[in-house]
Specification:
Helix content is 16%, strand content 23%. By secondary structure, it is α+β, with helices and mostly antiparallel strands. Helix 1 packs across helix 2. The longest helix has 17 residues.
């Protein structure tokens, strides 16, 4: 948070913050630049190694929603405002379970919830049947990493997805909405 190179007593971002930044940036067709500052002897400080490993673990489960995807018609929804410009990420309020980002690949839309919902439900307002972004068909909805098809209901105001058991994770969760057509 406080340097673009190695310094003593560095104030590191948490892995969850970097994962959320990655998701937000990819949903807007951007690329995330990671700062890894080696010591003068070339070694990577342990906190940076740990953070990279955590990001890698998240991507090993949810990478399908990131790699080779494209931005969707709208980048996302939710109440948390993301400030623009350099070094503004430290001024942001924490993301909520209403903050959702979208990516797409073929006939699959990925909805990535930036804070795991504690109530076992994801509510996506952009996909309600009265929304300008509504789909005429959805074949299935599954939680990435679980491989399970989850319960869902489409109404005029939202697509409601039941994701019991994913609550409490400190990291974002992603669902694949497959077989979507406008």
């Amino acid at each position: 948070k406080n340097s673009w190179g190695y310094i003593e007593n560095h104030d590191y971002k948490q892995a969850n913050e970097i994962i959320c930044d990655l998701i937000d940036i990819v949903s807007k067709n951007g690329a995330l630049l990671l700062n890894i500052g080696p010591r003068p002897d070339g070694t990577i400080p342990q906190p940076e190694q740990d953070m990279l490993l955590e990001v890698g673990r998240w991507l090993s489960v949810h990478g399908e929603a990131i790699y080779e995807t494209r931005p969707w018609r709208v980048f996302g929804e939710g109440p948390t405002k993301v400030e623009e410009g350099a070094f503004t990420d430290t001024k942001r309020c924490p993301f909520t379970s209403e903050d959702i980002r979208f990516t797409a690949k073929g006939e699959t839309l990925y909805a990535i919830v930036l804070k795991s919902p504690t109530n076992g439900q994801i509510q996506i307002k952009a996909l309600g049947s009265n929304s300008e972004y509504a789909f005429s068909t959805i074949k299935s909805v599954s939680l990435l990493g679980e491989g399970n098809v989850v319960g869902w209901d489409l109404n005029a105001n939202e697509l409601m997805i039941e994701v019991e058991g994913c609550g409490g994770s400190e990291y974002p969760v992603a669902v694949a909405i497959r077989g979507v057509t406008q």
